[in-house]
Design brief:
Keywords: ATP-binding, Isomerase, Lyase, Metal-binding, Multifunctional enzyme, NAD, NADP, Nucleotide-binding, Potassium. InterPro entries: Carbohydrate_kinase_pred_CS, CARKD, Nnr, Ribokinase-like, YjeF_N_dom, YjeF_N_dom_sf. By secondary structure, this protein is α/β, with parallel strands linked by helices. The chain is about 40% helix and about 15% strand. The protein has helices spanning about 5-20, 25-45, 45-50, 60-75, 95-105, 145-150, 200-205, 210, 265-275, 290-295, 310-315, 330-345, 355, 365-370, 380-385, 390-395, 405-415, 455-470, 475-490, 500-510, and strands spanning about 1-5, 55-60, 80-85, 110, 125-130, 160-165, 190-195, 215-220, 230-235, 255, 280-285, 300-305, 320-325, 350, 375, 420-425, 425-430, 435-440. The protein binds ligand NAX and potassium ion. Ligand NAX binds near residues 59, 62, 66, 134 and 144.
Length: about 525
């Protein structure tokens, strides 16, 4: 299982490694520098042959210390290296100071902000950002922003850009770019980010993937420390998805509530996803006016007429209906009427879209009715309607780090709602009320930009409902569905429409050996 370590957790892992006597700070710094050099040579093998030129920007902390190691290692490979330091060398922390002195025996230490422009420019080269890493606590102000801007200007267009641990300006915990007062937020835009021991939440959340470029995490010999509160990075479905045989009733019966005439498509998409992911039976609950429309569109799916809360209560007397999904295309009025009844029935329940927006005026009424087997699947806007205070924390400029993150927001929301919350986005965060949390990022090797298409969210809700019907717990169902949703999108690729997602599941499941 991969975990994402916050800046504080990373410091604790480093201290534990050093306190055990297994490794010293200087050794960790040396391995970090070696890791960056190895990653950059692997990424651009040609730079070893053709350019062999680097500018290294060092900051006042240990991130800067890594920069001195990198400069020395590249120099040893016969690269031309120009190094610049922000701050006073006499105030560097001990390990960084040691590496400053080792570098200083080989080359010059220029001052930042530049008193004279770098000698190296034009052609090709590599600029190494070792200004700030996990220790960044405030935005890059008038002193640092122009240093970064220089490498976005003419002369450096063909240079590769490598960030050490994190692009400077990016908050390790939240993936938000820190602001400096009223100045525009400045950040180093990397082609490659090389981090150490474990990825950080900021590599996957918010602006992280956009500014990190490619991400490499290198081993620096720290033992895997376990942090109960660390977020997991989702890289697999986490559930056995194969069917163990048996009757269709052994695999659950999902009930998807549909909206009225002309608005049934979303529920049909959700229902098809629930069926494809293996629910034994799936029934659409439809108001009378939409019955013809739905009947004309379904085959393996079933349909029941549900006009009122009483009709839903009556239907749910059948205990075989073990998972319910409300929201996709449901309509606000119908959601207000049906959601309380569905929650009273105590089934595993997914609430999405209109089923969430219906409670915008009174989220407390929803929270009181929810139970532990529920999953809420808000996107940012729906999240803001139910948890306006948490959404406000996430919005607007981030003035100091470590910043409030989507992990913090989803975790607080799950605790408040008393159920699983899946906060949707390219950086989906899933949190359980006990604080368990994971991040599913459609980023780097798993980017799926085609998922930003109408109806994709309805399919996600249906996948969760199908997995709930099959007996998965709320958190596990949401986690697996987020993974499968992106796998299905990646299986189709460009041109994807939501209808394709359920149809891609057989290939996805086959690929997973299910
Ligand atoms: N934790 C670990 O296990 C390891 C950490 N290493 C490196 O050490 C880094 C963390 O080092 P530090 O904790 O010293 O932190 P940083 O080097 O990221 O920065 C801390 C320094 O920057 C100053 N600062 C913060 N924000 C500023 C701003 N906006 N403008 C000006 N100055 C600012 C702080 O006052 C402090 O002096 C990691 O990112 C990584 O690169 C590596 O050497 C390997 C091992
Ligand atoms: K950096």
């Amino acid at each position: 299982m991969s975990v994402l370590l916050t800046a504080a957790q990373m410091r604790a892992a480093e201290h534990a490694g050093m306190a055990s006597g297994a490794v010293s700070g200087a050794e960790l710094m040396e391995r970090a520098g070696q890791g960056v050099v190895a990653a950059l040579l692997k990424t651009w093998p040609n730079s070893e042959v053709a350019a062999r030129r680097a500018i290294v920007l060092c900051g006042p902390g240990n991130n800067g210390g890594d920069g001195f190691v990198i400069a020395r290692l590249l120099h040893q490979r016969d690269w031309q290296v120009e190094l610049f330091l922000l701050g006073d060398s006499s105030r560097l922390p001990a390990d960084a100071r040691l590496n400053h002195d080792r570098w200083n025996a080989l080359g010059k230490v220029g001052a930042l902000p530049f008193d004279a422009p770098p000698r190296l420019s034009g052609g090709e080269g590599v600029v190494i950002d070792a200004l700030f890493g996990t220790g960044l606590t405030r935005g890059l102000g008038a002193e640092v922003a122009p240093i970064l801007a220089r490498f976005e200007a003419a002369g450096y267009a063909d240079w590769h850009r490598v960030a050490v641990d994190l692009p400077s300006g990016l908050c390790a915990d939240s993936g938000r770019v820190l602001a400096a007062g009223d100045s525009p937020a400045a950040v180093f835009r990397a082609d490659l980010t090389v981090s150490f021991h474990s990825a950080k939440p900021g590599h996957f959340l918010a602006q992280g993937p956009e500014v990190c470029g490619a991400l490499e995490v290198v081993d620096i010999g720290l033992a895997a420390a376990s942090f109960a509160e660390a977020a997991e990075l989702v890289t697999d479905p986490g559930l056995p998805l194969g069917k163990r045989g048996g009757h269709k009733f052994d695999h659950g019966h999902a009930l998807i509530l549909s909206g009225g005439f002309g608005r049934t498509g979303a529920a049909r998409l959700a229902a098809r996803a629930a069926l494809r992911i293996g629910a034994g039976l799936v029934t659409l609950a439809v108001p009378g006016a939409a019955q013809m429309e739905v009947a004309a569109q379904i085959t393996a799916l079933m349909m029941r007429r549900v006009e009122t809360a009483e009709a839903l209560a009556q239907l749910l007397e059948d205990r075989r209906l073990n998972a319910v999904c409300l929201g996709p295309g449901l309509g606000i009025e119908r959601a207000r009427m049906l959601v309380p009844e569905a929650l009273r029935a105590g089934r595993a329940t997914v609430l999405d879209a209109d089923a969430l927006s219906a409670f915008a005026g009174d989220p407390e009424a929803l929270f009181t009715a929810l139970h532990a087997d529920c999953v809420l699947t808000p996107h940012g806007g729906e999240f803001a309607r139910l948890f306006p205070d948490l959404a406000r924390h996430l919005a607007g400029p981030l003035q100091s780090g470590p910043g409030f993150s989507r992990i913090d927001a989803a975790r607080a929301a799950a605790a408040r709602a008393g159920c699983t919350v899946l906060l949707k986005g390219p950086d989906t965060v899933i949190a359980a009320p006990d604080g368990t949390v994971c991040v599913h990022a459609a980023a780097y090797g798993r980017a799926a930009p085609w998922l930003a298409t109408a109806g994709a969210g309805d399919v996600l809700a249906g996948l969760i409902c199908g997995l709930l019907a099959r007996g998965a717990g709320a958190y596990q169902a949401a986690r697996a569905a987020a993974f499968l949703h992106v796998e299905a999108a990646r299986c189709i690729g460009p041109g994807l429409i939501a209808e394709d997602l359920p149809e891609a599941l057989p290939a996805v499941l086959r690929g997973l050996g299910a």
